[in-house]
């Protein structure tokens, strides 16, 4: 299990750093959007390149941060029923959901999106909009984003199995009302196990 936990730590590190890097694309998207609007209204000119660049940035943010969002446990959950269950029951739900739904879905999308990217790259696909951008850079974000999500799903399953085995603290503790973020269970000191 030690090797799997080391893999989990590496995946968590990767998605943490990708997420923090992609934060800057939010600022870039805002700057491009504001600049485009300013030029359009002051100089009465614009280009589809600016609109498509905003779309590319949004796509990168959404796709590349899916694994980061899963790492942070920030995906939307409906906790009306599961919130009343024990930590172990919630952990089992996460494992079953990850194995039966998340991993197959993300793997299939990653696999099927690769030929879409390669076709776009080989044919140097361009936007059909006048003055638009080349399409392959945004299409490669799909398999990359879903690969990061697959890796993070594996990491989350490993952490939850390790929790059930008593090797690490709960990787998904119930959030306290005072807003303290949960500790990193994989890197927690050994004396915290079982708390």
Automatic annotation (TrEMBL):
Where primarily located?
membrane
Signal sequence segment: none
Q: Keywords of this protein's UniProt record, alphabetized?
A: Cell inner membrane, Cell membrane, Membrane, Transmembrane, Transmembrane helix, Transport
Bilayer-crossing regions: 21-41, 53-71, 92-114, 134-154
Its record classes its membrane topology as:
Multi-pass membrane protein
Give the location in the cell.
Answer: Cell inner membrane
Tell me where in this chain the Tripartite ATP-independent periplasmic transporters DctQ component domain is found: 31-161
Q: Where is this region: Disordered?
A: 174-195
- Domain of life, per the record? Bacteria
Q: Which InterPro entries match?
A: DctQ (IPR055348), TRAP_DctQ (IPR007387)
Q: Where is the composition biased (Low complexity)?
A: 185-195
Q: Does the keyword Transmembrane apply?
A: yes
Q: How does it assemble?
A: The complex comprises the extracytoplasmic solute receptor protein and the two transmembrane proteins.
The UniProt family comment states: Belongs to the TRAP transporter small permease family.
Q: What does this protein do?
A: Part of the tripartite ATP-independent periplasmic (TRAP) transport system.
PANTHER family reported for this sequence? 2,3-DIKETO-L-GULONATE TRAP TRANSPORTER SMALL PERMEASE PROTEIN YIAM, SLL1102 PROTEIN
Protein's recorded name? TRAP transporter small permease protein
Question: What does the record give as the organism's lineage?
Answer: Bacteria, Pseudomonadati, Pseudomonadota, Alphaproteobacteria, Rhodospirillales
